[in-house]
Amino acid sequence: MERVPYWNISFGLLIDILSLPALAIFGYGIYRHWLRIRQGKANIKLGLTLEALKVGPLYLRSFITRGIVGTRIYKKLFTGVAHGLLFWGMIVLTVGTVLVFANVLFGIPVFRGEFNRLCMGAFLDVAGLAALAGVLFLLIRRLFPPERLTCFKANTGFILMEVGIIAIIVTGFFIEGARIAQNGADPGSFVGNWLAAQLTGGGGLSTIHRYLWWSHGLIALALIAYIPYSPLVHLVLAPANAGLDIPVPGPKMGVVDFEAFEGEGEEETPSLGVSKLADFSRKNLLDISTCLKCGRCHEVCPAAQTGKKLSPKGVMTTLAEYLQQGKMDDESLLDTITTDAIYSCTTCAACMEACPVAVNQPNAILRMRQHLLMERSEMPEIMGQANRSLEARHHPFIGTGFGPNDWRKGLEVPIFEKGKTEYLLWIGCSIAYEERAQHVGRAMVAILKNAGVSFGILEENRCTGDPAKQMGNEFLFTEIAGQNIEEFNELGVTKVITMCPHCFNSFTRHYPLLGAKFEVIPHAVLIRNLIASGAIWLKNSGLAICYHDPCYLGRHNRLFSEPRQVVSSIGKLVEMPRNGCESFCCGAGGGNYWTEEEGTRINQTRAKEALDTGAKTIATACPFCMLMLTDGLKKFTEEQLVKDIAELVCSQMEA
Ligand code: SF4
Ligand code: SF4
What we know:
28 helices; mainly alpha; 4 domains; Rossmann fold; elongated; binds iron/sulfur cluster; four-stranded parallel β-sheet; Fumarate Reductase Iron-sulfur Protein, Chain B, domain 2
């Protein structure tokens, strides 16, 4: 017999009618979120906007992959699978419910033949079981949570929603079983048929069926109405947040338009950076609203994991509380989060990589840091000295005895000549002023000469200004970058080689926003190309070499395979447990090269991880990583194991 929708139910259409107020309450809840989010600044110039518009399809990709499919969720296997079973199971059940409405309202024959057996019977039962398994796993994990879920604040609101979903699925199965027990087996509905065989009760069953039917419908409507007021609002906010995420990796700090602060007749001078919620952009406030407090960022943050005051989850939780309480203009925000926490961020972007809902935690942290430095002149003591050194001497290496050109003493290095030289070899600050890093510059010169590359350096070496930007001194960064761009333009520089990923990142992300127009190639990529083209020949020692991914080459610029190809051409590549996009920071980023660390030292943690691979050589492709790991290793061994890939290539190069 063909299934009759609303069998045994009088006034069943009432549920359809009640769905209208439920949807209205749902809509009002989403509107309230929008009202909060729109209090943020819509006109903050990130400078990437035009570029971002050109890559519109990437926004769409982010919306679908990170927002709808939730690819990042699966980085945790069990939680990911449970989430997937629940989400897709509920989607299928919702489609099934819509088909029932379509049958009732428009007579679409969904309860006939094979479609009924396979889709309305078997497939819906499978979806119900999948969703039930998923939600039970998630509920049990909420009741016995790992530390990441409970630190700072547990999102207990999930429990009520999970119990509600279980109630909907279970009542749904029992409604099916009670109906089949009365009307005979339903083809394909294997769960319903099995339940029907267990149920007895004659006339009582039909009453139970009626009660269950109404309970099922009313719980479902209540749950839908309550979604925007519960953590399940991420069903709406997460796709929106992922879809609005500028499709370049990293914190996306853009540059500050200082001219906007110089307008005559301004009644009130706007403050630099963020001192209160109202200073954040709408995207920041959407991030804050979307955060699930899942703690995945806390688990991977090098600062949080080594006992610093910073936890990205802690920061997002505080911001969410301020937003929830409407404290848009409350200037206590930075003191609540604390200066120590704000400066402990190494800008490694591990939190962004781990976040399942596309939150940009370092962007919020760095905007607060900008305010601390530019408006309150507050920063840790050593970082302050580095900052003052940058202002006075245009490099941050306090106490160095080296001059800008000492690194090339005794070495023939060509100076860049306008119209003649192809590449500018950019030296930067660390290679000029840190003795250990000077070897990288010298090795790179040897490689370029051996390969016959047309290159030259600047007569007077300088810093990109990137450390100033990372420390929050946007004004100084803009000044230094402006001078560099001017000099590049005068010299006609069109191609630049970098040895430091921080320089590479600054040149490619921030300089173009200030008018720069030149190509940049990191030395890892150039060396890989020189090897591939046969411009240099290398001996492969076959010895194990462990490679550490610099955050600004890997996570920030997705250059994972190129340095590995270089390493593989001179030895046997060995990986640490945390590698590639899951790599652990060396601790130097965000200006933290110049800081006195509290708790366990990040560089020692990473150096130990590298040492534990058993490799006798630890390779990297960043002078800051090399310096940090070299220092970190001193706790465990006196051997000098850390080398830049340029040094390794140079040592294996055949003339
Ligand atoms: S960017 Fe790195 S250091 Fe900063 S909050 Fe995120 S994980 Fe922590
Ligand atoms: S920011 Fe992302 S990873 Fe961190 S707690 Fe919030 S949702 Fe989880």
